[in-house]
Amino acid sequence: MSDPFAIRVITDHGEAVEALTRRHGFEETTLSEGARRGIRRIFGEDLTASEVVDRILDDVRTGGDEAVKRLTAQIDGAAPEQLEVPKAEWETAFRSLDPGMQDALQTAAEQITRFHEKQKRSSWFDFSDEGALGQIVRPLERIGVYAPGGTAVYPSSLLMTAVPAKVAGVDEIVVSSPPHQGMVSPLILAAAWVAGVDKVFQIGGAQAIAAMAYGTESVPHVDKILGPGNIFVVLAKKKVYGVVAIDQLPGPTETLIVADDSADPRITAADMIAQAEHDEMASAILITTSPALAAAVRAELDIQLETLPRGDIAQAALLNNGLIIETSDIPTAMTLANNYAPEHLCLLLRDPWSAVPLVKHAGGIFVGEHSPEALGDYTAGPSHVMPTGGTARFYSPIHLNDFVKVINVAAANEQAVKRLGPATIALADAEGLRGHARAIEYRLESKR
Amino acid sequence: MSDPFAIRVITDHGEAVEALTRRHGFEETTLSEGARRGIRRIFGEDLTASEVVDRILDDVRTGGDEAVKRLTAQIDGAAPEQLEVPKAEWETAFRSLDPGMQDALQTAAEQITRFHEKQKRSSWFDFSDEGALGQIVRPLERIGVYAPGGTAVYPSSLLMTAVPAKVAGVDEIVVSSPPHQGMVSPLILAAAWVAGVDKVFQIGGAQAIAAMAYGTESVPHVDKILGPGNIFVVLAKKKVYGVVAIDQLPGPTETLIVADDSADPRITAADMIAQAEHDEMASAILITTSPALAAAVRAELDIQLETLPRGDIAQAALLNNGLIIETSDIPTAMTLANNYAPEHLCLLLRDPWSAVPLVKHAGGIFVGEHSPEALGDYTAGPSHVMPTGGTARFYSPIHLNDFVKVINVAAANEQAVKRLGPATIALADAEGLRGHARAIEYRLESKR
After folding, report:
1. Beta carbons within 8 Å of B312's beta carbon, 6+ residues apart
2. d(Cα B239, Cα B233) in Å, to the nearest integer?
């Protein structure tokens, strides 16, 4: 048996509660020295990330394409002739993939389509003697999806956002992704092809968010912006919130596994590592009723990290934010999990369904040994874009509702005005709004 | 016949398109001299509204109740002993109203309850040979409703937010409203009583938003903050977005009426005035196919404004933002209306239902002469909290969905992992995430 990995282990309940209870939500992070150097080079002075984003937003709002190209040249090294990537290039990118990869993208898209088709909501009307009330459900007209580029390229995230939009009936899906060495990643282009998006722009960072929020000569302004990104992207999304809708402010990814003595240590450790390999800020937490499992998982972590290509990243994440909590029983474990409100909640239990009703806060629940988060990340069907940082208390994963809006409809008749008129007039007058009261009185008088 | 009111009239289509097409969304407004004086008095220097809000948020986050009381004393003139208003006082406030008013509040609450009960969504599961997929729909645990006080007291807005939350099953509804001369408006307290809220705090402005977002010794932190307010409240909501969820960033209220020659000029003018009397920034727009109606409405506006208690405000709003557009036909009128994406869209047409399918963007549609917006403001049933400033392109009115969240559930079995495993591994490896691929491979190997 290998050495137990030096992850933090908590056996005291109070300490566990404290470790898992957090103030949720987005906070501006400290910039790396490299990022600060880049800012001084481009803007000629030290600026906070927030100040950088303010400048970029103003610049693109007033300068349009010219500003976008200038910023792209400064930030990404070279400005493209054309901001839009022609559709033929996406198709080429897709056709150039090996057949297994083509099939994988299509399988993922089909699974996502199927899951989201079940979520379709209908407009509804309720007719009565007093007329009709109802709600019209309409897809958004145009959305923008940000797809990060550079070192981290996630075609799956593009599918997880664009495919649900397509199912919802969004008219036009625009993608923006930073050029890396002069071009958008072929994997992103191939995913755009598979998802059936409408336009792809080679623009990254806050300038992409600005272009989609305000519109430029080339980039149409959209109604909602979705997708993950670095601190500049996230800050830009927060700042344009209200000008457009946004999905959420994503933070580092996180998983919480609740396991009993039936769990396989090798699989449990693999799931923790799959989370931890994302980046050094990722969190992987195990809550277990079995001290034996806890010990075996620590040994497995050590073995598996040894041979993992991204072992350094995963190890740093596990040391920074990893946690094993030993607790007395499953209900207590679930209460702790609810305190944390994890993005991913994985149930490696003998009877995993019995724990599902105990879940109050989570982005997604992965029920049982054959539902690893890794399946959820790619092919299970639900979107892997889920609330982080405890915001699962109030946010939902991306789903069909993100791509529709509701219009309320009131069609009262004379009888309704007669019945509700006196109450309406009383309330209007109580609020000092005589004009509202009159609008009702004139109808009550009207003999037409 | 009275003089025609000097509202702007447009007969040219291009000019109408330009007048109605706007960049949507929230922008910081200029502060009045009175507000600036207040800021200098309290903070000892000139600050922008955004800077004021930053200070208040920091102050309350670190200082808790003590900070809230100090700010309340400075801003509202006196700090209350206790921040919470005991429930007995709400009941007294309700019992002190005349029976007509008691009945009016209850009628409104019943209508709102009925409309929102029809919107309930169920959790769902779809079982197959590969396991199960589904979504759990759960009410939020705790929400905060801001109810403005001082000169503008709208008990109806409190009902329009708290009652849908109650229907959705929210565990705890917290209300915060500024004290005026040492107490919260009795109408707000009575509405809180009728709506069945759980706690009322006498705190106003950005300090109320901060207290509900971060929590203090007295005020529990909430999951979502809703409700209208002044510029400080709106800015504070935007700044705490992500720490909590928020409903939207409300701007000035607006109505757009589409009318043909069947419309009654007196009623049409009354509906414009009912909108305009809210405040000087309110917008009331009439688009009509009938020049005769346009002329008659202008005369009616003049007559009705004469005797309106808030005539000065309504007149200023109509001169600032009022508009009458004469156009050729109903489809053109509806296209113009969609360009504007109004909060309220009123159809005063011979055949109003035929125009409903042409609506792309609106907060609420008011169908026909007996569905005045005034009814919608109080007793029709749909919430009157609706998207403004063109954000109806992507936001919905407050409805049941605002008070629930979704948790995705994936329960794949061995067969699912077998079928989806290869695609999952291919995608994980393409993204450089070997740990994800392994989590699948170990399952495929597992013989247990």
Report:
1. none
2. 10
Q: State the virtual CA torsion across B230, B231, B232, B235 in degrees, nearest 10.
A: 130
Whole-angstrom Cα distance, residue B310 to residue B301? 13
Say yes or no for a CB contact (<8 Å) between A393 and B437.
no
Chain B residues inside the 8 Å CB shell of A141: 360, 393
* A257 C-beta neighbours (distance < 10 Å), count: 29
What is the phi/psi pair of residue A101, to 5°? -75, -40
Residue type, B339: N
Residue B122, exposed/middle/buried by CB under 10 A (0-12, 13-18, 19+)?
exposed
* Tens digit of each residue's pLDDT (9 = 90 or more) over B101-124: 999 999 999 999 999 999 999 999
Domains and CATH numbers, chain B: 8-26+252-381 (3.40.50.1980), 28-250+395-410 (3.40.50.1980), 413-446 (no CATH)
CB B390 within 8 A of CB B341: yes
> Are residues B401 and A406, on separate chains, in Cβ contact within 8 Å?
yes
Nearest to A439 among B132, B274, B414 (CB): B274
Structure tokens at B55: 């200070």
Residue % of chain A over a pLDDT of 70? 97
ipTM metric: 0.95
Report the catalytic residues of B.
Answer: 343-344
- Decide if A36 contacts A52 (C-beta within 8 A): no
Q: Would you call A377 and B428 a contact, using CB atoms and an 8 Å cutoff?
A: yes
Task: Count contacts between A and B (CB, < 8 Å).
Answer: 402
End-to-end, the C-alpha distance of chain A in Å comes to 91
Residues of B in contact with A365 (CB under 8 A): 136, 407-410
B413: Cα within 13 Å, side-chain hemisphere = 8
Contact check, Cβ <8 Å, B428/A378: yes
Distance from CA of A74 to the nearest CA of B (A): 27
Residue B136: which of A165, A382, A121 has the closest Cα?
A: A382
Q: What is the pLDDT of residue B79?
A: 83
How many Å apart are CA A17 and CA A335, to the nearest integer? 9
A-chain residues within 8 Å CB-CB of B264?
Answer: 442, 446, 448
d(CA B382, CA B373): 11
B391 vs A contacts (CB less than 8 Å)? 242, 245
- Rounded to an integer, what distance in angstroms lies between the CA atom of residue A361 and that of residue B398? 22
Element (H, E) at A125: strand A124-128
| Contact call for B434 and A310, based on CB within 8 A | yes
Chain B contact probe: residue of A124, A377, A405 with most B CBs at under 10 A: A405
Query: Which residues of chain A does B138 touch, with a Cβ-Cβ cutoff of 8 Å?
Result: 360
| A53 CB-near residues (< 8 Å, 6+ apart) | A206, A232, A235, A236, A239
Task: List pLDDT tens digits, range A19-41.
Answer: 998 654 556 577 888 889 999 99
Q: Give the whole-angstrom CA distance, residue B24 versus residue B27.
A: 9
Q: Given an 8 Å threshold on Cβ–Cβ distance, is A391 in contact with B308?
A: no
* Report field, pTM of the whole predicted structure over 0.90: yes
Neighbour order of strands in the sheet with A283-288: A9-10, A323-326, A283-288, A254-259, A344-348, A364-367, B404-412, B131-139, B124-128
Nearest-CA distance B43 → chain A (Å): 24
Q: Which positions of A are annotated as active-site residues?
A: 343-344
- The closest CB to that of A118, out of B126, B420, B442, belongs to B126
CB nearest A370 (choices: B23, B155, B417): B417
What lies within 8 Å, CB to CB, of A10 at 6+ separation is A16, A19, A323, A324, A325, A326
Residues A248-261 have a mean pLDDT of: 93
Residue among B440, B403, B372 at smallest CA distance from A273: B440
C-alpha span between B388 and B250 (Å, rounded): 6
